[in-house]
Amino acid sequence: MPAQIIDGKLIAAELRAKVADEVARVKREHGLLPGLAVVLIGNDPASEVYVRNKAKQTEAAGMASFEHKLPAEISQAEVLALVDRLNRDPSVHGILVQLPLPKGLDANTIVNAIDPAKDVDGLHPVNAGRLASGLPALTPCTPLGSIILAKSVHDSLEGMNAIVIGRSNLVGRPLVQLLLNENATVTIAHSRTRDLPALCRRADLVFAAVGRPEMVRGGWLQPGATVIDVGINRIPGADGRNRLVGDVAYDEAMLVAGAVTPVPGGVGQMTVACLLVNTLRAACAIKGLPAPSV
Ligand code: NDP
Fold first, then answer.
1. Fold of 141-269
2. Which of 149, 188, 191 is the pocket-test mutation for ligand 1 (most atoms within 8 Å of CB)?
3. Which tens digit of pLDDT belongs to each residue from 100-137?
4. Disulfide check for 158: which of 2, 87, 183, 276 has CB 3.0–4.6 Å away?
C-alpha cells in the first residue's frame, strides 16, 4: 500500500484559519492588531515572491502587514537604522528580514539587532538559546511547521527515534531542539556523518533538510517511517522547465514509508502559516496577554 501523503496545504490552511480566529478575538477583546514588518533588500526574484506571499497571507489573517523594500546598494548602517525604528514602533510586533541578503550586508549583525521579542523568524541568538534551554521562545517557522506535520500523523512523538539530516541554524538545529521538547530520541546527521543510510533505517521519523535533490532513497527508510521532506530544490524537468523536488526521492519513499510530505505542497506551505502564528504569539506577549491558543 502506498504511503499516506501528508497534506501540508490543507494543514497550513487550517492553521491560518485558527490564527485568523485568534486575531479577530484579540482585536475584539483587547484592541490588539498584530503587525508584521518584512524587510526585503535587493531584487532576488524568489525572495520577492516569498515576501509578496507573506504580505498577502498576513492581511488575509486580519493582521497588519508593513513591507520595506530597500535597494541592494543600501548600507549596513541604514538597514540597522530601519531595524531600530521597527524595534521601537508599537504597531509592529514581528520583524522579518528576508534572507539571503545582498553582498556587503552581514546577516548575523542585522538579525542580532532585531528585538528578540519581535524576532518572528526565531533566528536571534536569544531565541535560539532559549529554545536550546527548553524555555519558551520564538522558534524558526520551517522547523515548527515540520513538527506540526509529523504530529498530524502521530499524536505524540515521545520515545520515537528521529533523524534530522542537516544542522543549519535555520532548520536542522532548531528542529532537533523541538524534537527533544517532544521527548523524541534524536540523531543529528550532516555532511560528515558516516553511513547515513544505516542511521536513517533506524529512524521512525526522518526529517531531511539538506538541499540535495532526492538524496534520501527509498532503500534508506524503515518500512512505515514518517518522512518530512524540508528540501526545496529546482532541477530541470523533461520539458526543459525547472521543477521542484525535495531532498527525498518521493516515488521511492511512497513505496516504503508510512507517511510522506510532498514537495511542493508539504513543509513549504507550513512556513508562512507558522510565521503568522509567531507574529500573533509575539503580539500577545508584547501586550502582556496570555499565549494564544494556536
Ligand atoms: P544549509 O545549506 O544551510 O544546510 C544544509 C545542511 O545539510 C548542512 O548542515 C550540511 O552539513 C548538510 N548536508 C549537506 N550535504 C550533506 C550530505 N551529503 N549528507 C548529509 N548532510 C548533508 O540548508 P538549509 O538548512 O537552509 O536548507 C535545507 C533545505 O531546506 C534546502 O533545500 C532549502 O531550500 C530547504 N528549505 C525549505 C524551507 C521551506 O519553507 N520548506 C525553508 C528553509 C529551507 P554541514 O553542516 O556538515 O555542511
1. Rossmann fold (3.40.50)
2. 191
3. 999 999 999 999 999 999 999 999 999 999 999 999 99
4. 183
